[in-house]
Specification:
Mean pLDDT: 76
Order of helices and strands: HHHHHHHEEHHHHHHH
Number of helices: 14
Distance between the termini: 78 Å
Structural class: mainly alpha
Strand content: under 5%
Strand order of the largest sheet: 1-2
Number of strands: 2
Shape: elongated
Largest sheet: 2 strands, antiparallel
């Protein structure tokens, strides 16, 4: 139907007068709203990045990292591994595990999904803050054990008094409370609101008036950047450089001693401490590589928002997805580093796995004996008759199952010995 006919019909029905200038404004407003809604749609690059990173890479990295951190926790809880440095590493493994767990759930839950119930959206808001809490705690735990290793290497006499298990536990608790206090305002940044329209009702996440205030955006954001980004990176760079210098000097001294008679068993404790120091240096280097891009992005974003400057939103979101993936990789690789550098870690892990293997073997054979009437059969024997009423097929199944257990245990033992 032509627009003129529509106007004429409306005039006949209402006997009123239409202001055509107002109609033009209405059409212009509808056009602007349509263009605005199209502009808010994510670009194909952003869609592809989210698809690959969040749906494929994040689950693989996070699941592998959670398994590795569980192994870290189990090994570091061993009484033989109870040192001040391992207290920090145990706490770091716990924080990394919780961070990865929240990241895994957030990879499949998004506030943009209008079909999510209110409880799911509230979980998203709390999970975001919780992931930041454990991530921030991990940052400062890394600073703590780097500083502790620096004191132990450069000031060994004072290190025996300062670097104790009890003081390490106190430092971990203070670090967690410090991170909690500084992360707590994030709980009031976003809220869940109810939206009703077009005979439908759904929930969505919106920023609160508290988060929109200029003082909060300028003050808290820059405080957050300085406290959890800039300051830790500077401290870690400085202390890690000094540790690398100490290791280099120690290697030169060991080469000089190797030319004398001071060799053999006298240098074994020093070599193990050198391996621990190299392990911590590698942890910090990986941390700096994975955390620096996110730090730069956070500083840039805070700057442009504080100064009300235009910025490419899609590019920022694409870079944010990649930076978050790097942080998750950083929280997932510590098990590989510990296993490679620490001989004691490998030995404890091997003992733990062998203990499981032996216990599982005994329980499996005991279960089979109870199930099949306590009859013991050779792995190649197949009895034809039985007084207990069991058929020869059942005993053959027992023999095959026991053989499978033995093959699996041998395989697990070989895999464990490779560590």
């Amino acid at each position: 139907m032509d627009i003129t006919n529509v106007e004429q019909t409306f005039l006949n029905q209402t006997s009123g007068v239409i202001d055509h200038s107002e109609m033009n404004v209405t059409y212009s407003t509808m056009l602007n709203e349509t263009l605005t809604s199209l502009a808010k749609q994510p670009s194909f690059s952003l869609y592809l990045t989210r698809l690959v990173v969040q749906n494929y890479l994040v689950p693989v990295v996070v699941l592998g990292g959670m398994v590795g951190n569980v192994f870290n926790i189990m090994v570091l809880l061993n009484p033989k591994m109870r040192t001040s440095t391992n207290i920090y590493l145990l706490s770091l493994a716990v924080c990394d595990s919780m961070y990865l767990l929240f990241c895994l759930t957030l990879a499949f839950l998004h506030c943009s999904n209008k079909q999510l119930p209110e409880a799911a959206l509230r979980y998203i808001l709390n999970a975001r803050v919780s992931s930041d809490l454990f991530g921030n705690t991990s940052v400062w735990l890394t600073v703590c054990f780097t500083l502790e290793r620096f004191i132990a290497v450069r000031l060994p006499l004072r290190g025996k008094r300062w670097c104790t298990v009890k003081k390490a536990k106190v430092a971990v608790l203070v670090t967690f409370i410090f991170s909690l206090v500084n992360t707590f305002p994030e709980f009031f940044e976003t809220e869940v609101v109810t939206v009703t329209g077009n005979f439908t009702t759904y929930f969505r996440c919106e920023s609160t008036s508290f988060a929109e205030t200029y003082s909060y955006q300028f003050g808290y954001y820059w405080w957050f950047v300085a406290l959890f980004t800039f300051t830790p990176l500077v401290l870690l760079s400085v202390f890690n450089s000094l540790l690398i210098k100490s290791v280099w000097e120690a290697n030169k001294k060991r080469q000089m001693l190797s030319q004398t008679r001071v060799t053999g068993d006298a240098q074994k404790p020093n070599r193990e401490q050198q391996r621990v120091t190299l392990m911590l240096i590698s942890v910090v280097v990986i941390f700096l590589i994975c955390q620096t891009p996110q730090a730069v992005l956070l500083i840039y974003r805070s700057y442009v928002i504080a100064n009300d400057m235009p910025y490419p939103a899609d590019l920022i979101k694409i870079a944010g997805n990649i930076c978050n993936l790097l942080v998750q990789i950083n929280a997932s690789v510590n098990f590989v580093l510990y296993s490679y550098f620490s001989r004691q870690f490998r030995r404890t892990f091997k003992t733990l796995m062998c203990g499981w293997r032996n216990g599982w073997n005994r329980n499996s054979i005991r279960t089979l004996s109870i199930t099949f009437g306590g009859k013991k059969t050779h792995k190649y024997a197949t009895p034809l008759t039985s007084s207990s009423g069991k058929s020869d097929h059942e005993y053959e199944a027992v023999a095959q199952t026991k053989e499978s257990f033995r093959m699996w245990n041998s395989f697990m033992y070989c895999m464990t010995c490779t560590w």
